[in-house]
């Protein structure tokens, strides 16, 4: 790739990153930054609304025109505040959906790793060998039980023989 195309596409590693889109962490960070910015703007607008309301009260009946202008600005600020509330709600919903998607992706990835690990563990196991082994174990347990029974029976010295 030429230097000029790298410059316009953002370089080697970042251009491949751009094609895949931002990572979930980057997107979440940006959404949180946007939420912070909108929250600050909300606080600013709320103080402006209070200031315009105080100005309208101050002018009251003395200067109706100034009072009406202050009320109009207050109304405009309230409209902006309402829009910001809706935008914040949408961003919060999107952030929560992204967090859930990221969590689901991580869970699915880890389940895939676990499945691969189980496959690797079971790779050297053969069902026929397992059946043979289980039969051998059962036979040896039967032999051990017979030996145990034989040892635990009281010897009947002479009781078994007929005179």
UniProtKB/TrEMBL annotation:
Main location: cytoplasm
Subcellular location: Cytoplasm, Cytosol; Late endosome membrane
Keywords for this protein: Coiled coil, Cytoplasm, Endosome, Membrane, Protein transport, Transport
Region listing for Disordered, in residue ranges: 1-26
Any single Pfam family the record assigns to this protein: Snf7
InterPro entries according to UniProt: Snf7_fam (IPR005024)
BP-aspect Gene Ontology terms: late endosome to vacuole transport via multivesicular body sorting pathway; protein transport; vesicle budding from membrane
Gene3D superfamilies: ESAT-6-like
GO CC terms, sorted: cytoplasmic side of plasma membrane; cytosol; ESCRT III complex; late endosome membrane; multivesicular body
Membrane-topology descriptor: Peripheral membrane protein
Family: Belongs to the SNF7 family.
Protein name in UniProt: CHM4C protein
Species per Swiss-Prot/TrEMBL record: Eolophus roseicapilla (Galah cockatoo)
Lineage, highest ranks first: Eukaryota, Metazoa, Chordata, Craniata, Vertebrata
């Amino acid at each position: 790739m030429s230097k000029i195309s790298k410059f316009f596409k953002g370089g080697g590693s970042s251009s491949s990153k751009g094609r895949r889109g931002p990572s979930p962490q980057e997107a979440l960070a940006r959404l949180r930054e946007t939420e912070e910015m909108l929250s600050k703007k909300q606080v600013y607008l709320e103080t402006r609304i209070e200031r315009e309301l105080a100005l309208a009260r101050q002018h009251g009946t003395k200067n109706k025109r100034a009072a009406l202008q202050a009320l109009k600005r207050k109304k405009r600020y309230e409209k902006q505040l309402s829009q910001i509330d809706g935008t914040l709600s949408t961003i919060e919903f999107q952030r929560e959906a992204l967090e859930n998607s990221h969590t689901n992706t991580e869970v699915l990835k880890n389940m895939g790793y676990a499945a691969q690990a189980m496959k690797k563990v079971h790779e050297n196991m053969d069902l026929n060998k397992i059946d043979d082994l289980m039969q051998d174990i059962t036979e040896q347990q039967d032999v051990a039980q017979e030996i145990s029974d034989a040892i635990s029976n009281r010897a009947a010295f002479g009781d078994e023989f007929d005179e």
